[in-house]
Specification:
7-stranded mixed β-sheet; alpha+beta; 10 strands; 7 helices; Nucleoside Triphosphate Pyrophosphohydrolase; Arc Repressor Mutant, subunit A; homodimer; 240 residues
C-alpha cells in the first residue's frame, strides 16, 4: 500500500486490553464485570464494564491481559487467549463512557481500539475474595445489564466463538467446570453458551460417546431429587 | 481494573492493519508482499513488508483490511478474517523500519500495534495486473527474504493457524485452489502449509474419504508424465 496516502487521514487512537472472563458456578455461566463508578443512581457514570485498561508503554498485549487477570484472580493458571480486536469508530458513541475514561486517565479520548481476551476460570471462594478489592463481581450472561462501550457486543461475540470452540476444542469447557460435575451441570453450561435448551436424550448420548468424559463411582449426596452421578474430565482422552 | 493507575504509564501507540494474503499458483504457496522503497542496494530502506497501512480516523478495522485487499486485487470476493493483534514493544526495534514509516507519514513513530488479517485468494492473471500499480508481488512462503517489522513472525503464526484451520474448516484451503486441481496440487498446498512432506498413500486415502473432494472425468492434457486426474471441491458436502 502507499503509506504516503495515510498522512491526511491517519490518527492515533488509544489502545486498550479488555478481558472477557467467563466462569460457571455449577448453575449459571457468568462473566466478571467491574464498575465504572460508585453504585449511585445519580452518578454521571455508573455502568458496568469488562475488566481492562489502556496498554502500558513497555508491555506486550498478552502481558497486559495476564496482568489484568492476575490482579483480579490472584492466579496465573487460567486459560487465556487473545480473542479479537474491536475498533469501530462507534465504540465511544456514549458520552458517559468518554467522560468516565477522560476523568480516569486525565486525557482527551478520541477513539479506542481494544484487544479483547477470552479467559475461562473456575469460580471458587478464593477468586471471590480477590475480586472484592477491584469492585468486580460475577454476572449471569443470560441477564446482562447495559454495559459500557461495546462490551455487550464483545461478550456476545465471545459466546459465539466459545460455541464453536466447544465443538472443535471440547476440553476448553472443562476449564470452567469443577473437578467433579453432573451431566446436568455439563448440559447447562453448554445450553448457556449456545443460548438455547439442548435435548436431554441427545446430550446423554453425547456424553456417553466422549472418551474424555469419564463416569465416576460417586453420586450426589443429600439432595432432595434423585442423586445424580458425577463425571470427570480426563486429560489425554480428548482428540485435539 | 483501576483506570486511574494508567495515567503514569499509558501512551498512544499507532494502530495499523496488515494483510497476510496467501495464494497458491498450482505449485507454490505464496504470500503477497510490497516494498518499502525502490529496489536499490544503496537504499536506506528497501525491505519487503506485508501490505498494510495505518488505520484511518473514520474506519473500522475490517473496513481497512477490505480496502487494502480491494485496492490490491480489484475484487471484493475473497476470504478474509481478522487473525490477531501484534503489539510487542520490540516491533519497531529496527531503525530502518521506523525511518521508513516516519518519512512516509511525516510523523514521529513510537510503537505500532497492528491488527493482522488473513486472506486466501486464487492467483490468476487479473490479480497479477492489479498488483503492479502497488509495487506488490507474490513470494514463496518457503523462501521468504528478510521482512520489515515483525512481519516474518506474523506470517509464521498465520501458517500455524492455517494448518489448524485446514483440519477444522477444510473448505478454506479450496479458496486458494483453481476450480479443478490434481491430487498432487492439493497435497503440495497442504505440505507447504505444515512445512513438511506428507505420506502419499495416506494423503490419497484422505482424499478418498472426503465427500467434498469429488473426482472428475477429466485428466491433465499434454503432460510428459502420466496424466493425473482432476478433482473439484463440492460446496455443501463439507461438514462445517
Amino acid at each position: 500500500m502507499q503509506a504516503e496516502n495515510t498522512t491526511l487521514n491517519s490518527f492515533d487512537p488509544h489502545v486498550s486490553v479488555d478481558c472477557v472472563i467467563l466462569g460457571y458456578d455449577g448453575e449459571s455461566l457468568k462473566v466478571l464485570l467491574s464498575r465504572q463508578g460508585e453504585e449511585d443512581p445519580n452518578s454521571q457514570y455508573n455502568s458496568l464494564k469488562l475488566p481492562g485498561r489502556l496498554l502500558y508503554a513497555d508491555e506486550d498485549l498478552d502481558d497486559a491481559a495476564n496482568d489484568i487477570l492476575n490482579q483480579l484472580t490472584g492466579s496465573q493458571n487460567h486459560y487465556v487467549r487473545q480473542f479479537r480486536a474491536f475498533g469501530s469508530p462507534t465504540r465511544t458513541n456514549n458520552p458517559k463512557d468518554v467522560l468516565w475514561l477522560e476523568n480516569a486517565i486525565k486525557q482527551k479520548i478520541g477513539r479506542i481500539v481494544t484487544i479483547a481476551y477470552l479467559s475461562l476460570v473456575r469460580i471458587n471462594n478464593r477468586t471471590h475474595r480477590t475480586f472484592a478489592g477491584h469492585d468486580a463481581a460475577w454476572y449471569k450472561v443470560s441477564e446482562l445489564p447495559e454495559l459500557a462501550f461495546d462490551h455487550s457486543t464483545i461478550i456476545r461475540e465471545v459466546l459465539k466463538e466459545l460455541e464453536m470452540l466447544s465443538v472443535q476444542q471440547p476440553h476448553l469447557i472443562f476449564e470452567m467446570l469443577p473437578p467433579k460435575f453432573t451431566a446436568l451441570q455439563l448440559r447447562r453450561v453448554h445450553e448457556q453458551i449456545c443460548g438455547h435448551e439442548l435435548d436431554v436424550r441427545n446430550f446423554s448420548k453425547f456424553i456417553m460417546n466422549k472418551p474424555y468424559i469419564v463416569p465416576l463411582d460417586e453420586w450426589e449426596q443429600n439432595v432432595s431429587h434423585r442423586a445424580a452421578r458425577f463425571y470427570k474430565f480426563q486429560v489425554g482422552k480428548v482428540k485435539l
